[in-house]
Structures are given as structure tokens and as C-alpha cells.
Amino acid sequence: MEEPVLSGKEIQGDGLAGFRKDFVSLLFLEFDAEHIQPVKQWLRSIPLATLSAVHAFNTAFSLMRRQLRRDPPLMACWINLGLTAPGLRKLIDKAEVDKLGEAFNLGAAERSTFVGDPDNGSPGDARSWVIGGAGNVPDAMLIVAGDDENDVASEVRSIRKQIDSLAPGVSPVRIMYEQAGQTLPGKMKGHEHFGFKDGISQPGVRGYLDSPTRPLLTPRFIDSSDPLGELFAAPGQPLLWPGEFVKGYPEMDFNDPLKPVQKPANPDWIKNGSFLVFRRLYQDVAAFRRFIADSVQKLNQAGLPGINAERLGAMCVGRWASGTPILRAPLADDPNFLGNTNDAVNSFFYDLDTDPVIWNPSTGRQPDTLPPARRDFDGVTCPLAAHIRKINPRDETTDQGPPERTFKHRILRRGIPYGEVYDPEKPGSERQDRGLLFVAYQSSIEGQFEFLQRTWANASDGPRGGAGLDPILGLNGNDDPAKRTMWFVKDDDTRIPLVLPERLVIATGGAYAFVPSISAIQNVLSR
Amino acid sequence: MLNRFNPPGNLNDLKTDSQLNGWSEKVIHPFFTSELASVQSCVGAGNVQFVDPLVRDLGGDSRKVSWPAFPIALLAAGLSREDALKRADDPKNGRQVQDEYLEWFIQRNDAGEITAVDFTCEGPEYWDYLSRTLSKEGFTEIYRIANPQVTSAALFDSDGQYDPMNEFNTTRGIMHLIHPSNQLGAEVDIVAQSTMLRDKSGVVNCRRCHSSNQIGDGNRKSDPTIATNVNQLALDGRAITVADPVGLYIDGLDTTGWTTPDGSDPQSLFTITRGNPAVRARFEVPNGKFKISDVKIGGEPILFAGQIAEHVFIKVMVIVGPKNEFKHAPKIPCSGKPTHAANALLEHSAKPPLGRSGQ
After folding, report:
1. Which of A432, A468, B109, B241 could form a disulfide with A486 if both were Cys (CB 3.0 to 4.6 A apart)?
2. Helices (H), chain B
3. Higher pLDDT, B215 or B187
């Protein structure tokens, strides 16, 4: 099966390769339609990080880290650019922008109630968003990301300076909002604010880069002698056709993950571009902890005596705080998974017992001898509503049909936390703003992000009848308590309901952007 | 213990014991008995996990299998969403592609705008039985929900046979499902055949035991979802049956993020018009206060009935017994082609344990 060649110098790098930096600054920009030529001139001058550059860096970084057994002293600071529908309409003909689809053109605020945000003035209502809501929809979004906080700050200063000097006496580009994000410090590194390790499971992408060595974008760790190797690059990492994330490449046939379907990019200039969904998600950590503590008592009284706070958290998320999947450590976290570099944390299915994979010998990986995941169709170990089970049902047949159809809904997540770690000992910490800067790449906003949020996370019957609401991400519009239930199932089929609190996670900003190719910016959007 | 199968949606069109018994004994029960015979011939007595609810009461542990009702086959065929919506609504071929156990009929005004949509998930078997059981007048009267202008002459042919493809169930209205795959018998068949364990869990595309016919249609959401969920329940050694009343049901319309121009609740536009559980519903703006195209779904105006169908859920209820009742049911060779993921997963899990590759 031939995999496509990806234009490494055309595609911006954060989507397919991922910046994976500790420090990020998101700049939300407004263009002055009356002075659009200086805007275009400036857009042409932004040094955008390409897929080739980011992939080469990440590959070298991973290699060195394996050799050094610590993070190598490699540093970079990168920029990517996304344009919203209003921004594109200032740059090119509206009819061209209309072709990018209804959801993109309507924008994140207009679509917010569709994905479950309230519209009754309560927290999360798009009219109160700090950015992207009514009256403050940005035209563009710059992602500045680096390994060093000072580099990011210096790059942002430099951007501000360029913007200020674009045209005498006017400000063609205005920074509407700046949002810093950073990986959390100390033991929380790699975790989100509720305390759980984040970003573990990402899809793989088929295809080679067009650089001289023609490296595979996603390295293949599973040996071809293992039947799983045809579909997965590593345990839990399905191989998707690049058209699921970048326009102009083959997508997956609805019924056959091995069959590419080529769809032409329309309009032509969107080739090598992706859609980006940004959601600024406030996390109420104190409320989450209260919910866990209160619910432990309720569940203990309701006939689940073995559940403590840590295990309830793991049952809500599907993983222990460390990232260990609950299916591989059902009753307590197993420290052996921590630091295991073998993908053991991502090797599990729900409907079948999961056996270890056969590694490709060249990877040097050791056999996975940690306790395997056992079949859990009923959700006794990992509730059907657990966050990671709702949005990535793996081998489950869903309301869309066979398991491979779930591949069509995967996204590339590039989120990073913002705000300080919650400290219950510190006065005022509860009221501080903190959360996740959710960034996801895809080729269809409707079919990917919106589908996952609305059809699976928010729906009591998605992806399977009777699943219940996702306790972490499930949104329910103006909050009908009757629809805010998850279920705990005992081995004897007893089902114990748990009514979930309102909005532990609240959207406080958002944007739908298109991340164009380098040549589209140079030759189409800025001409 | 159930003493007879009730009409779909507990409808009260059948009034007498004799009529009700006829529905149970002549239509629904034979589905169960023929499936039981088929399953038993494949797995042997003592291993039949499919249950006749008139013979054995499994209790009240019900499981819902549900799916959104817009046909995925159109998207799988490579159509864009807009083209799929157009195709599904097109009266020339519309109902030939409405294959997720929900079909609809659109009423339009002179300007071609949608003024009402009737949705149904009533199986054709029920209407065939009514036509043979009720007086023509009584039958016609019930049919008037499809269109007040219905006449007996339009429903029956010259031999007095009911014509399911009559104009009031095709071009001038809708009364029940007509897509060849949308049948109650198909539902019972998929559930029954899926209670047999397979040597590959690709039950979705498996052939029926002793037959070259496929279990359902893998190119839909409904059939694979029903088949695999039932097969997974069977894998736990459970006895399984279809809940009474046997039928496909409308499980509701998800209107999260829908807006109306006057701020009224969009749920108020969707009225269940037959059955409990629901088998028929109408989407309409009361008193023409505004147009259907003024209703927006996530900001998109409703221009196609398929946009509504995207958010209508259809369900099947199955009843299960406790785990591990059946421990020795044989696995039937799967003569069909499992889905790729099922195949890879199963072959992977069937591979020799660690060490084969010398790791």
C-alpha cells in the first residue's frame, strides 16, 4: 500500500508534527480592513515553522533523549498562523471563504451552543468569552511556542514591534488578546489542572515527508508480522490517512481504513492547510475535587465500597492521574507504568482482551510484560462515560457502526495548560483563572471536533446507548440535570447513577481558524 | 411472562383479542420461532442464547442500542454532506436511500419551502397485518394521519390487496417504512443471528448461519451497531431477546444548539404523533408562526429534512439475562468478511503469546 508524500515545506508544523513546547503565547489579532495592504505585507514576512523543520527537530530531540536519558539541550521557538473566516474575508473574496464550510464560516461563538455551551448568560455563554465571542472575534491567531520562556517573550516583543511599525500613523494589525500557556511545573509536568497526565493518545498519520531521506511522518513500532501493524503505528495509535487532517491528501474510506480516497482541495489554495479549533477551557479544580470527595461517599453508600478518591478520578477519566490506563490497573495505580517507554500506557482495548504487540525489532523495544487489559464491554472497570472512552472508543462499535469508522473522528490535540496550579493552602487560589488552551487540528470541524464534543461527549447515548455524560468534558447547554448522569456498573449488572455537577470545565474563549499552507499565504492570501 | 407480543409502540389500532392475538401469533412469534430453529440448528440445543419471550421471561435488564438516523451510506459513497442531504430529501429517490429505520416525507408550500416533515419508523409488517385484519374503512381511517385525502381506493388494488407503495405512502404522504431493509423481521433476524458467537467477531459482515445471506447491511450505522452490541452481550454468556413490543423506535430529537426566531423551545416543534414508545413524529411550526428555514441548527438554517434526521435517534431495546449462563456455546465459523479493524484485532489477539518473534 503506497502512502502519500507530504509537502514538508508547505504545511505549517504544529498540526502534523506538533510543536510540543513548554511555553506558548497565543496572539489574537484584528486586521484593519481599510489598511489591508500593510497587513498582507506583514503576513508574508512572518517566519512560519514548517512541518519539515518541526519534524526534523522533534526527531533529533527524541533520538538524543533516548541516548542521553534526559531532555537534550536543543531549543527552538516557532510561529504558526491561523486565519478565521472574518480575517480571510478581509484578505480575499468572500465567495472563496464560503467554500470552507458552514461551521468555519459561522465561527466558534455562533457554533458554541451546538457543541453544548449555554446561551442563558451563565458561565460559558459565548457572549462572555474573553476572546472569540460576540464583538471580539479575531481575524487571526498566532501561535508562538518555545522551549524557553524568554525566547517566547522575546519573539512576542519582536512581533509587537513589527506590527507597530507597519504603517505610519495607523495600526493595520491590532493585538486583541494575548494568552500565555505553559506546561505545569514539577510533578504536574505533562498533566492538566485536574491532575491527570494529558495528550497521551494521539493518532498516527500515514505518509512520507518530501525531504531527501523521505522519513515516515509517524514511525512504525509494530512489526508487520503482527496483524495490528497494518492499522496501527504503535499500540493505541491508529494510522490515519493525512487527508483527515490536511486538505488535499487522501482521506480514509468510510468502511475501509486501508483504502485511501482522494478528494481534490476546493478551492485549490486550501491544499496543505488544516482547520484549527481553539477553545479556552477554564477548569474549576476546587469544584472537581469537591465533586470527587462527595461522590466517593455517595458511591460507597450506594454499594461500591471499594471506591476512593483516586479510583473515582480514574473511573471518570479512564486513566489514573499518572496516565496509567484503568483497564490495565483496575483497582489502584501501578507505578510500573510510570516512565515505561514502551507505549504500555496506550496498549488497551475495551471489547477484547488486549495482548502485547510484536515490536518491530529495529525499534529495540522490550516486551510489554505489565498486567494486560481485560475485556470490559459493560464498563465495569472503565465506565462507558469515562472521558477517554467517550471521545476515543478504540475497538468499540459505536452509534456510527464498526470500530474503524471511529478513525474518521480523530483529531490532533496540541493543547497546553494556562494559569497556576491550584493550591488549596493558598488563599485565593480557588478563584484564580486556570485551565486548558485546547487546540486541535483536523480537516473537518463538523466531522471531527464538533462531532466528538456533541455526538459523543455531550450525549448520554453516545458513542453507545446508555453510556451517560462525559464527566470531564460533557456539556449540556443550559444544564438539564436529568441529562447529567454517568453510570457505574457492578459485575452483577447493577447500575448505580451518579449525577454530575454543572460545568467543571467552562469555555471562556474560542476560535475556528484555517491554517493555510506557506504558499497560500505568500501567493493567494497576501496578494 | 409475556403472554402475547404487543403491537409496535403499544398502538391501539387493533381492538379485539382476536386481532391482537393474530399480530402476536401470526406475525411476530413466527419470527422468533423460525430464528430459534435456525440458531439451534447451528449451535445445538442447550447453546441457544436467543430467547422466545413467550417461553422464558428474562426479567427487566434492558439495553438500548441507538444511532442517529441520517443514512451514513450516502457519505460512505463519497457524497459531500450537502449532496447527501439533497439526495436523501429528493422525492425521486429519497426513500430508497433512507435506510437507517427512519423514513420521512416532506410537505412543501408553493414556493418549495418545507412546511412540515413526517417521520416514521413503523415496520411494513404491521401495516400489512392491519390491512388484512381491519375493515377497509377502519384501515383507511387510520391511514388519514398520512394525508386527510386518503381513500380506500388509493390504498387497495383491484384484487383488494393493500399496496404499500400507494401514493399516500410515497408521493403524497408517509405511513410506514418501505425501504427493503427497514423491516421488523430484519431487526429480529439481526438480533437472533448475532447471539451466536463467531470465530471472528466480524459479525457485522458475517453470513447468516446456513445461508449465504449477510446479517444486515454493513454499510449502515444501524445494522452493525445492533449486531456487534448483541454479539458482545452474547460473548458474556447471556440469554438475549428483543424487548416487547418488538419494533424500532424514535428515541428523541437532540435540539441542543437549535434556535427559533421567537426563542421558543425547538422541542415544541417535534411532536410524537403515534406510539409509546414513539413510532411516528411530525416536525412543524405551530400556526405557521415562522418558517422551518428560520429554525437554525448551530447557526445553519434548516433547508433539508435530513438536517433534522441527523439529530433524530432510533433505538432498539434488547433484554438480557445474567452473565455466564452459557459457558460452552460453540463459535460458528464466520464465512463473511469481518471489518478490517475487527479482523486485525482478532488476528492480533489470536497470535501466539510473547516470544514468537524472539523478543
Report:
1. A468
2. 17-22, 29-43, 72-76, 81-89, 94-97, 124-133, 136-143, 152-155, 184-194, 222-235, 305-309, 340-350
3. B187
Judge if A38 and A134 occupy the same domain: yes
- pLDDT-derived band of residue B308, with 50, 70 and 90 as boundaries? very high
Is residue B338 situated within a structural domain? no
Chosen from A98, A111, A397 to mutate, greatest number of chain B CBs within 10 A:
A397
Nearest by CB to residue A225, choosing from B75, B78, B357, is B357
A137-151, A336-350, A469-483, range with greatest mean pLDDT: A137-151
Q: How confident is the model at residue B232, as a pLDDT?
A: 92
Q: Which of residues 456-495 of A touch B (CB under 8 A)?
A: 458-459, 461, 464-466, 476-477, 491-493
If asked whether residues A80 and A42 sit together in one domain, one would say yes
Q: What total of structural domains would you count in chain A? A: 2
Instruction: Give residue A134's region: left, alpha or beta (phi > 0; psi -120 to 50).
Output: beta
Same domain membership, residue A231 and residue A369: no
A261 — contact with chain B (CB < 8 Å)? yes
Q: Is residue B335 part of a domain?
A: no
Q: Which domain holds residue B22?
A: 8-123+177-320
Least confident of A46-50, B6-10, B328-332: B328-332
**Helical (H) or strand (E) element with A82:** strand A77-83
Are residue A27 and residue A130 in the same domain, yes or no? Answer: yes
Q: Phi and psi dihedrals of A378, rounded to 5?
A: -80, -10
- Are residues A496 and A515 part of one domain? no
Q: Is A68 in the same domain as A162?
A: yes
- CA B359 – CA A369 distance, rounded (Å): 11
Chain A CB contacts of B225 under 8 Å are 397-401
Residue A262 neighbours by CB under 8 Å, 6+ apart: A243, A249, A250, A251
Establish if A432 belongs to a structural domain.
no
pLDDT mean over B187-193:
94
Q: How far apart are CA A433 and CA A175, in angstroms?
A: 21
The pLDDT, as a whole number, for residue B92 is: 82
How far is the first Cα of chain A from the last one, in angstroms, to the nearest whole number? 39
Q: What is the mean pLDDT of residues B301-318?
A: 98
Average pLDDT of the segment spanning A324-339: 94
Question: Does A386 share its domain with A245?
Answer: no
The partner residue sitting opposite B345, judged by closest CB among A111, A395, A446, is A395
Mean pLDDT of A252-271: 93
Residue A428 lies in a domain: no
Residue A503 pLDDT exceeds 90: no
Interface predicted TM-score (ipTM): 0.94
Tens digits of per-residue pLDDT, A101-143? 999 999 999 999 999 999 999 999 999 999 999 899 999 999 9
Tell me if A351 and B353 make a contact (CB, 8 A cut-off): no
With beta carbons less than 8 A apart as the criterion, state whether A246 and A276 touch. Answer: no
Asked if residue B341 is part of any domain, the answer here is no
A465 closest CB neighbour out of B63, B204, B297: B63
Does residue A300 fall inside a structural domain?
Answer: yes
Q: What is the number of structural domains in chain B?
A: 1
Predicted confidence (pLDDT) at residue B7 exceeds the cutoff of 50 = yes
Q: How confident is the model at residue B210 (pLDDT cuts 50, 70, 90)?
A: low
Q: How confident is the model at residue B64, as a pLDDT? A: 97
Return the SS3 of A505.
strand
A274 and A398 fall within a common domain: no
pLDDT digits (tens, 9 = 90+) for A284-314: 999 999 999 999 999 999 999 989 999 999 9
Query: Does residue A244 lie in a domain region?
Result: yes
Write out the three cell numbers for B243: 424487548
Contact (CB<8Å) A367/B67 = no
**Are residues A354 and B72, on separate chains, in Cβ contact within 8 Å?**
no
| Helix/strand/coil (H/E/C) assignment for every residue in A6-54 | ECCCCCEHHHHCCCCCCEEEEEEEEECHHHHHHHHHHHHHCCCCEHHHH
Domain holding A193, by residue range, is 8-279+510-525
